[in-house]
Specification:
This protein has helices at about 1-15, 30-45, 95-100, 135-145, 150-165, 175-185, 190-200, 205-215, 230-235, 240-245, 250-255, 285-290, and strands at about 20-25, 50, 70, 85-90, 110-115, 125, 220, 225-230, 260-265, 270-280, 295, 300-305, 305-310, 315-320. The protein is an alpha/beta fold and about 325 residues long. It has 2 domains: about 1-200, inorganic pyrophosphatase (n-terminal core) (Alpha-Beta Complex); about 205-320, Roll (Diaminopimelate Epimerase, Chain A, domain 1), CATH 3.10.310. The strands form 3 sheets. A 6-stranded parallel β-sheet has the order 3-2-1-4-5-6. The relative contact order is 0.11. It binds manganese (II) ion. Manganese (II) ion binds near residues 30 and 89.
Length: about 325
């Protein structure tokens, strides 16, 4: 079935006159890497496809090949000739619907993803739950269709794989991830660029904020769980960006022996974002129940209209700020 779908998607891409790509709302190495790799393939066929993203590309990703094709301009959807939309690494059907609705024509929607919480919102759904990254799904697309990725495409795909597996260390790492990575290296993927994108990007201020989070860790031994908290003040007073704060949960997951962890972080728009990681528990179920999504061992959700308050006993709480009825 997967191979059949990959061949079908190949035909759709080659026949599309005005395709548009959409990268997940949350920009990361996988959503960007997978969409830019396929943008590179399209460019090899003379088609420069716009890749819609919700906010400017975080600094660490600005050296990715074809990143100049990314746009935050919603006007890309005004073209009535759009006949194909390909969505990458996105399980949020509502987000995709709100964008596709802007297109006056009737485009085919292709959904390429690996989240267990993906509800198959597309006309064509290549959702491979066992895949370590959407980049691995796109890599499979190349293989099934006998396309040799360019060095640029290989670098994008390796970025996606490295990002979602935290450089081949977390629970998403499987033989598929390592097999795809070794093939991408043979295709000339620039591994040092990928490492640079993944790791060499945190400022000293960002590490100080991480330090505050490390100090606040609360451990629940009975649950084999730990939690930590970051407020707007932490982020703003240290002049760091939210992008720089991403990755804290992955880092903790890499280095701790505690099974499950949660990072609570106040967002700029008045909510609290919860990132969860677990070595053994299926936390995608918790995330889904709370309106979020993700994977079995890496998931998250948002607590709307709320903030974090530290009590006199030094324990942190999520407090709802929505008191207007
Ligand atoms: Mn992913």
């Amino acid at each position: 079935m997967e191979s059949y779908l990959h061949r079908h998607i190949h035909r759709l891409l080659l026949n599309a006159r005005e395709p548009v790509f959409i990268s997940d709302e949350r920009i990361d190495g996988d959503s960007l890497g997978s969409s830019l790799a396929l943008a590179d393939f399209m460019a090899s066929h003379g088609k420069i496809v716009p890749v819609y993203i919700t906010s400017v590309v975080p600094k660490q990703y600005r050296r990715l090949p074809r990143v100049h094709q990314c746009t935050t301009n919603l006007d890309v959807f005004n073209n009535p000739e759009i006949d194909l939309v390909v969505v990458f690494d996105c399980s949020d059907a509502e987000f995709v619907r709100s964008l596709v609705e802007r297109i006056s024509g009737n485009p085919t929607v292709v959904n390429m993803d690996h989240h267990v919480t993906n509800n198959r919102y597309g006309h064509v759904n290549q959702v491979v739950e066992g895949a370590p990254a959407t980049a691995a799904v796109v890599h499979q697309f190349f293989e099934v269709n006998h396309i040799i990725p360019s060095r640029d495409a290989a670098t994008c795909l390796l970025t996606g794989l490295c990002f979602d597996t935290t450089a081949f260390s977390n629970a998403a790492t499987n033989e598929r991830a390592l097999d795809a990575a070794s093939k991408l290296l043979l295709n000339g993927a620039r591994v040092q660029d990928v490492i640079h994108t993944m790791f060499h990007n945190r400022s000293v201020s960002a590490l100080r904020v991480w330090g505050a989070a490390l100090e606040r860790i609360e451990e629940d031994r009975e649950q084999n769980m730990m939690s930590t908290y970051l407020t707007r003040a932490d982020i703003e007073e240290n002049h760091v960006s939210d992008d720089e704060m991403e990755g804290l949960s992955n880092f903790l997951n890499l280095v701790t022996d505690v099974d499950t962890l949660r990072v609570f972080r106040e967002t700029a728009d008045g909510h609290v974002k919860v990132s969860m990681r677990s070595l053994t528990r299926d936390i995608s179920l918790i995330a889904k129940e709370k309106g979020g999504g993700g994977h079995k061992h890496a998931a998250g959700y948002l607590i709307p209209q709320s903030r974090l308050v530290c009590g006199e006993d030094g324990r942190w709480q999520v407090v709802t700020t929505n008191k207007i009825r």
